[in-house]
Amino acid sequence: MWRQPKAVWAVAFASVVAFMGIGLVDPILKPIADNLNASPSQVSLLFTSYMAVMGVAMLITGVVSSRIGPKRTLLVGLVIIIAGAGLAGMSGSVMEIVGWRALWGLGNALFIATALATIVSSARGSVAQAIILYEAALGLGIAVGPLVGGVLGSISWRGPFFGVSALMALALVVTAFLLPATPRAQRATTLADPFRALKHRGLFGVAITALLYNFGFFTLLAFTPFPLDMSAHQIGLIFFGWGLCLAFTSVFGAPRLQHRFGTVRTLVVNLLLFTATLTTMAIWTESKAVLAACVVIAGLFIGINNTLITETVMKAAPVERGVASAAYSFVRFAGAALAPWLAGVLGEQISVHLPYWVGAGAVLLAAGVLAATRKHLAHIDDEESAVDELTDEAEAITVGSD
């Protein structure tokens, strides 16, 4: 799995930096609120605008990539992220940051969807191995992001934004020089393709599962810094532990559990355990020790879920991988966009416990949806044929030689 073409490693490195942007702002949510006189729900819009635009933009990623090629799409996405992060750091109000985070989300959409498809098509070995490599990059980026955000955020809340912009500039250089030119798709993707893909019940069920699961995930991610009420550095360390657990189970835990118990069964049990974690946070919200411990433990379940859901999406329907990724991401990011804002409103106006109760309910419903969809996912655990593996290797050689 680890012996891959340089194209794969170039995209994986850039993916690490891209995913740092998700957790990088988490430690500075409260400092931004304090410095700019904003409420938790207003600051939570940093996640909402980012995720909402990313979700809608996922619909155009395949259209753009199939016309200008994956490499150019990745580079355009990185340039937009550099601009969005840098301008967010220069903002003077919360709403300005929210607006530039939306631009940042557009860049991330172009990059992330194309990166996943590029790694899967270029990597040697099976689809499962390629996805584990992608999730390793995701896990490493998410783990390091809060730590870097906490360190830079302890200096200034603007620091993490400028840090992302600088790191993305480095990723841009690496991608431009190490990723060979990639060919355009044989058939140009249309805006209708992702919606057609969702007609497949297996893919649609997994997408709805991911929407509900992301509701709980981003409730934890965006709202927890407020009841924790700690410094940026302390919150950064807590979410660093969360990210390490996520990275570990993404790469090592998920494949072993999948092999022993099967994909759907592992996911359903995993979602139930995540529901229990959010329920614990809802009951003991006033205890910082309980919240901190639950955040770290939740990383174990999120890592397993991310890897297995991503692999399931790639195999759920007989459509192109880029189209499947775009369709699934469009649906799932709706939950990621709504949860942070709603959690802030519920926590401010009703009860600090309620966001976690709602998040737990959403994840429990996700487990039910996935269980109901299982008959359409019976083929997920079929071994990838030798022909498929040779095709993947041939694609990797083709991309690597262009």
The rounded Rg comes to 20 Å
Name the assembly state: single chain
- Major β-sheet annotation: none
Per CATH, the architecture is Up-down Bundle
CATH superfamily: MFS general substrate transporter like domains
CATH class category: Mainly Alpha
Helix vs. strand class: mainly alpha
Helix content: over 70%
Number of domain units: 1
What do we call the CATH topology?
Growth Hormone, Chain: A
Main location: membrane
InterPro entries: MFS, MFS_dom, MFS_trans_sf, Tet-R_TetA/multi-R_MdtG-like, YfmO-like
Membrane topology: Multi-pass membrane protein
Keywords: Membrane, Transmembrane, Transmembrane helix
What do these coordinates show?
The structure is a single chain. The chain is mainly α. The chain is 82% helix and 0% strand. The protein has 16 helices and no strands. The model is unreliable at 385-402 (pLDDT under 50). Residues 7-378 form the Major facilitator superfamily (MFS) profile domain. InterPro entries: MFS, MFS_dom, MFS_trans_sf, Tet-R_TetA/multi-R_MdtG-like, YfmO-like. One of its GO terms (molecular function) is transmembrane transporter activity. This is Arabinose efflux permease family protein.
